Amino acid sequence: MSGTPDTAAPEAPPGRVARFKRRLQDGAHAAVEPLVALLSRLGVHPDHLTIAGLVLSALSGFAFYLGHTRTGALMLLLAGLCDLLDGELARRAGLESRFGAFLDSTLDRLSEALVLLGILGFYLRNLYALVLHPEQALLQISTGLEPLTWAVMAFTAALALVGSFMVSYTRARAEGLGLDCKVGWFERPERLVLLVMAGLLRVFWAMSAALLLLAILSFATAAQRVAHVHRNTRRAGTDRLGG
């Protein structure tokens, strides 16, 4: 990659949204500090929490698939807590490593996929049930719920899954090229909070709206990161690869 350090563009100061998110993160880290200290004294390894988060996410996805949205939301909340604790514990215990960071990021993607696939499966399962039982379809139509709605929401869940992966991929690809890409309105914590809130409400429109927002905001965040990398590489003259 061409370009020298003295031609690099200065990093822009964080915006109001970034500063607000940073304050929330600092508050969350401070809140879990006593629990992190306890886990450290008990000899819990950060990787154990990372794997526990994956298992809880799988249970969450299965609960969503069965239609137990509140159980799914609670499992997802616990999975998010594990995701917060593993990094804090690794820093406190001096166990930070490249493999640990790689494993954490990889299992985070798998965890999120399992949850969204569970939600997608819920919509497909209900659509399939209407095929087997036309009387249920007629009953739902009489209440204003068209069978097509289930298919549309399954497609929206798939879009949300792709969008969430794009958010992660754009940052990973940029950092693989040696570029900073810690920007974006809608990252994994925001996605988890949105799904947890929708699950706890346990009404059809809440999860439908959450998936639609998740899809739109995830793609918007991915586009924001693409624009950020384009702007900074052009400005710094680091847009050419190779020698």
Task: Sum up the structure in keywords.
mainly alpha; globular; 243 residues; single chain; Four Helix Bundle (Hemerythrin (Met), subunit A); 8 helices; 0% strand
Description:
The protein is mostly helical and 243 residues long. The chain has a single domain, classed as Four Helix Bundle (Hemerythrin (Met), subunit A). The chain has helices spanning 16-42, 46-66, 69-93, 98-132, 134-142, 147-176, 188-201, 204-236.
Q: How are the SSEs ordered, and which strands pair?
A:
Elements: H1 16-42, H2 46-66, H3 69-93, H4 98-132, H5 134-142, H6 147-176, H7 188-201, H8 204-236
Helix pairs in contact: 1-3, 2-3, 2-4, 3-4, 3-7, 4-5, 4-6, 6-8, 7-8
Q: Assign the CATH topology.
A: Four Helix Bundle (Hemerythrin (Met), subunit A)
Name the helix and strand elements from N-terminus to C-terminus, one letter apiece.
HHHHHHHH
Q: What integer value in Å does the Rg equal?
A: 21 Å
Number of strands: 0
CATH top level label = Mainly Alpha
Q: What proportion of the residues form beta strands (DSSP E)? A: under 5%
- Count of helical stretches: 8
The biggest beta sheet reads: none
- The CATH superfamily is known as CDP-alcohol phosphotransferase transmembrane (TM) domain
* Share in helix: over 70%
For the record, give the distance between the C-alpha atoms at the N and C termini, rounded to a whole number.
Answer: 7 Å
